[in-house]
């Protein structure tokens, strides 16, 4: 197709999208208005199950099956990265190159923030049902926290702290137990991921029934999954070298 | 719409444009990170702290790190290829 033809096709598609978007936005309730049909349904449902953070109640209780789908997507993308970035035959693992000089302030800040970040991550996972946050957010904070060791220390230090096999298993365990808890709800009440644990009293650490348990499982899965994902990227970028190419270039 | 919302929306628009207008992928990872941060501010202003936390972790930290690592790997391959060609020519 010629470039003019491509441009015409793009303009046609863009005009169609613009019309659809404009129609959709004109039909939406005004910004900041008082009309919230979903809020009127979701907030009482969250209060009924003693879950102070309504967002967590929607994610893990009212629409738990959607979150189960999302967790499966996370698992699937980590597996996809692992499959795509596995060492090819022409690549060989070598010792990572010695680290370049780091600013002392970077090292200090990294080592000070490392334990703080890990504690914040655990806190966000543990209190996902009573305050903003939850398993996904806390899991990502935990995973980035580990990588402060690379910024502050060295890649070797990070590699020692991060036995990949354990994180592989942690990810699978988190995703699997999510499904098991969903099946438990199915067995007990006939609905997948039904809230089968006593809901406790509103605003307490032990409240919300299955919500905090699912938060911990998601936190386990997401933190381990993100660490595994980044490990594959680090291995590609730092320790793998492409062998054979130089010989081929020099031999001919 | 309060002035605060207008300001954070404007910041998102400016930094989003900056990401598009950044040419080198290395620099783009940094502007992408700043764009992620501006989205975090917008979500906080719109009273969505849960989404803001996710955005902070994923958009401002993990994705730029993955971009940087991918670029580093590609640059190394390019350098190696250039080296190999130089030696073969001698």
Automatic annotation (TrEMBL), chain A:
Organismal lineage: Bacteria, Bacillati, Actinomycetota, Actinomycetes, Kitasatosporales
Cite the Na+/H+ antiporter MnhB subunit-related protein domain residue spans from the record. 111-227
> Which Pfam families does the record match to this protein?
MnhB (PF04039)
Location in the cell reads: Cell membrane
Against InterPro entries, the record matches this protein to: CPA3_antiporter_subunitB, MnhB
Q: Could you tell me which species this protein originates from?
A: Wenjunlia vitaminophila
The membrane-spanning stretches of this chain are 72-88, 108-128, 134-152, 172-193, 213-235
Q: Provide GO CC annotations from the record.
A: plasma membrane
Q: How does it sit in the membrane?
A: Multi-pass membrane protein
Q: Does the keyword GTP-binding apply?
A: no
Give the domain of life. Bacteria
Entry protein name = Sodium:proton antiporter
Q: Which family does it belong to?
A: Belongs to the CPA3 antiporters (TC 2.A.63) subunit B family.
Q: Which UniProt keywords apply?
A: Cell membrane, Membrane, Transmembrane, Transmembrane helix
Primary localization class, coarse: membrane
């Amino acid at each position: 197709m010629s470039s003019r033809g491509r441009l015409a096709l793009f303009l046609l598609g863009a005009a169609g999208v613009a019309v659809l978007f404009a129609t959709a936005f004109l039909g939406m309730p005004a910004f900041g208005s008082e009309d919230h049909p979903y809020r009127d349904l979701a907030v009482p449902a969250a209060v009924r199950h003693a879950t102070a953070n309504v967002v967590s109640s929607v994610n893990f209780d009212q629409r738990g099956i959607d979150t189960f789908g999302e967790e499966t997507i996370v698992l699937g993308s980590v597996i996809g990265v692992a499959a795509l970035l596995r060492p090819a035959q022409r690549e060989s693992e070598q010792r990572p190159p010695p680290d370049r000089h780091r600013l002392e302030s970077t090292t200090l800040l990294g080592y000070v923030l490392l334990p703080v970040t890990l504690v914040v991550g655990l806190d966000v996972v543990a209190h996902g049902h009573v305050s903003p946050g939850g398993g996904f957010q806390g899991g990502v904070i935990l995973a980035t926290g580990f990588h402060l060791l690379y910024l502050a220390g060295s890649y070797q230090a990070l590699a020692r702290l991060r036995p990949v096999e354990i994180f592989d298993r942690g990810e699978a365990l988190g995703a699997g137990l999510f499904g098991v808890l969903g099946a438990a709800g199915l067995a007990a009440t006939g609905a997948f991921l039904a809230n089968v644990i006593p809901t406790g009293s509103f605003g307490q650490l032990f409240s919300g029934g299955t919500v905090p348990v699912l938060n911990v499982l998601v936190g386990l899965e997401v933190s381990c999954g993100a660490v595994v994902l980044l490990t594959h990227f680090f291995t590609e970028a730092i320790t793998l070298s492409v062998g054979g190419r130089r010989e081929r270039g020099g031999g001919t | 719409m309060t002035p605060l919302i207008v300001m954070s929306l404007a910041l998102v628009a400016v930094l989003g444009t900056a990401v598009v207008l950044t040419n080198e992928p290395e620099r783009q990872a940094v502007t992408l990170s700043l764009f992620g941060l501006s989205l975090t501010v917008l979500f906080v202003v719109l009273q969505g702290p849960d989404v803001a936390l996710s955005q902070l972790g994923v958009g401002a930290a993990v994705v730029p790190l993955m971009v940087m690592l991918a670029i580093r790997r590609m640059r190394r391959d390019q350098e190696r290829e250039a080296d190999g060609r130089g030696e073969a020519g001698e």
